[in-house]
Amino acid sequence: MGLLSIIKKQKLKDRESRCLVLGLDNSGKSTVVDWILASYKNRPRQLVTPTVGFQIHTVPFQNHSVQLWDIGGQSTLRPYWDNYFDKTDVLLWVIDAAAAARLGESVDELKTILQNRDRLGYNCRIIVLVNKKDLVADLDPVIVRLKTDLSEMLKLENVPIEVCPTSALTGDGLDGLMPMIVEKSARKL
To answer: Looking at CB atoms within 10 Å, which of 1, 115, 122, 150 has the fewest?
Structure first.
């Protein structure tokens, strides 16, 4: 029960990834999580309702255990988001591409989170999903605006952010998400 036990526990812990799924209400966070659960835990797709509070799901992937923390995005819940930041390896930020009027609000909320980088952790990797791409005729202006806003916001920091257009309803663009989560959490400093 000495050093060997400690090393074994650390090896198991190194294969765990904690992914915090955040975004404004109705952005599709729970639908993304549902798609992951259906794809990697072989369960049927569920009827998704707005998350009140939070839900935690553990998904096995490539000898890793990925914990998905799906947190409600209603404005009344946002002040409590920072209670979930501890030990987060990957922040999965979900944006509703079909709600162009809320893009600024979503970027502002992400900016607020990134201003608390010490609370979130400087090793936390960030993936932004521009969701509901199936509902937008031309997604390019949304992606360009988002990348511009994010690069302007983070111009003085070395924060790697991956932006991915997706449709959680159809699964389009989500195939590479779990490998990205595991890769990003494995690159922790």
So the answer is: 1
